[in-house]
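#dry-run=false #mode=assembly
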Amino acid sequence: MMTTRLYGTLAGMGPDSPHYHGAEGPLSELSLSLVPLAIVAEWTRCGETADFVARYFAHDFDDRELAGNVLSTVVNELLENAVKFASDKSIPARLTVREYAERLCIVTRNVAAPGQAAAFGAAVSRLAEGDPEGMFAERIASPPETGGAGIGLIILRKDYGARVGVRITPSDDGGADVVEVEVEINNGDIEAGESRA
Amino acid sequence: MKLMLRRAESRGDILRCRQLIAEVYNRDYEVVFSENEYDLAAKVEPWPHRFLMALSAGELVAACGLYMRDTYVERFGQVSDTDFREVLRDAGVEDGYDVTRRREFTKMSVRHSWRGRGIAPFLTGAGHSRNFTEVDADRAIMVFCAKRSIIDNIFHRAGLHTRTIKPFPVYKVHELYRTPTDPMESRLILPRLDVPERWYELSLPGEYEVERIPRP
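#status=ok
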């Protein structure tokens, strides 16, 4: 078994975590499995899925409309990334949202070509450690031709204080990597909307 | 190699065609699709209204589409009824066709593992059969837009005669398709006149031997 590589900030609170079923575990969870090709074939499904997931969790916030809008933006961005970077679009990707007392954790999981996964991981490391305002200005001034963490992830960091991490698990046979992207946002930042920035 | 050609009729057939075309277009050009929304700057393209399937032992190996109205050429190619009429006038067939009735051959996609066997020009020719386009029902014209190399290597290789309307504008959706030295054009095909009889009268559904046509 090859070594899993971690980039950026990861909460590591999946079902494998010893804390998952304890007092620190999620209060609520929603998980969806979807075929990326179905989203490529009907792109509005991406936004519709993000809206559904956002509304599902917005019920737990005081300002449901604002929380719904913020969560829809975040989920839509992550889902777009998962579909875009899926190297085999017929292999199902997974979207999981875990709600904790003070934060929300959104995780996508998809397969990706090894080189592309490593480049994405390195870009997320830079994003996790860098100044999001500066990175945003840099990306606007000189957008890369291909690859790298999308401007959407930079906006999530900049506008919502999101913590972003990536877990890459190489396959044993040298085929596609499994890439998990995790974004964690404090519930307070979700309710503050973009005004926190 | 024999291929079964038939129009996609059932919901499952249409879904298979859409998935094949989406897979090819996304892999090659990073394009996505939508039934009701399109945004060429965001690389979201509209789906054709009709599909033709090419099957080998039940496997869908290639598919192409047809816009029955709201053609890409008129919506994004800035081609007007006057432009169409001028081409017809130049051809001396102004009264033979109704330029307000337009069909567009589009989204010709061969599965990557089936490429290099001459399927593209074969399916492009077959896609101009009146049994697929139904142009004889309303005297419609056929249009398409493509880069010049595709026009020569696919359309002309199939024996189709094409008539230039005008250059196709530059959009982000085509950034991985066209190049400055291989630009796109909107072209017109006059059914019966420009379509060889072997294609125009091709019966559908039907099983046909695909013969390789040499490159020009």
